[in-house]
Amino acid sequence: VRNLIFFLVLLSSQLYAGTVYLTPQEALKRAFQGSAEVVSEKKGLAPEQKKRIEKALGGKVAKDQWIFYLGKSGAKVDGYALIDHEIGKTEPITFLTALDPKGVVKGVEILVYREPIGGEVKSENFRRQFVGKKEADPIRIGQDIKNITGATLSSRAVSVGVKRAVL
């Protein structure tokens, strides 16, 4: 728990310059409303996993490790969440992807938006498109995700991040 609090404080301090919609703590609370506790686990990618993800995304994966959050009620895992960043036009968008125990998207929350335009990705209508998506789905603008006019790069960035989370 101490490590989780430290990480959240550190992450909060790195949410620089932009519109902060939710803190990591608030986003995790929304993702795991019915869970008794939230724990974190650092997960690394084996080289073959990284290659598979890069192939599915059509581009490089910048890092090999992520911190996943698990909502738990006793020994039962209620779901998973990943707080991640993806570059919009020039600045990172910080968001949370919540998954059920089978890896299906339960929700997406925008924590920090730093670009001068394109903040419409925060809208409920846009974020709702990801609910129910799973690894087998394209999760791509123009396929199963509708673009937001004037926010194409931001829409694409969130889509790539959600797809990465389900992989």
Number of strands: 6
Order of helices and strands: HEHEHEEEEHH
From the helix content, strand content and strand pairing, which structural class follows?
Answer: alpha+beta
- The low-confidence runs, each spanning 5 or more residues with pLDDT under 50, are 12-16
Q: Termini separation (Å)?
A: 27 Å
Task: Describe the structure in brief.
The protein has 167 residues and is an alpha+beta fold.
Describe the secondary-structure layout.
Elements: H1 2-13, E1 19-20, H2 24-31, E2 37-44, H3 47-57, E3 65-73, E4 76-87, E5 92-99, E6 105-113, H4 124-128, H5 152-166
Antiparallel strand pairs: 1-6, 2-3, 3-4, 4-5, 5-6
Account of the protein in words:
This protein has 167 residues and is of the alpha+beta class. It is built from 5 helices and 6 strands; from the N terminus they run αβαβαββββαα. A 6-stranded antiparallel beta sheet has the order 1-6-5-4-3-2. The longest helix has 15 residues, at 152-166. The relative contact order is 0.16.
Task: Name its key features.
167 residues; globular; alpha+beta; 6 strands
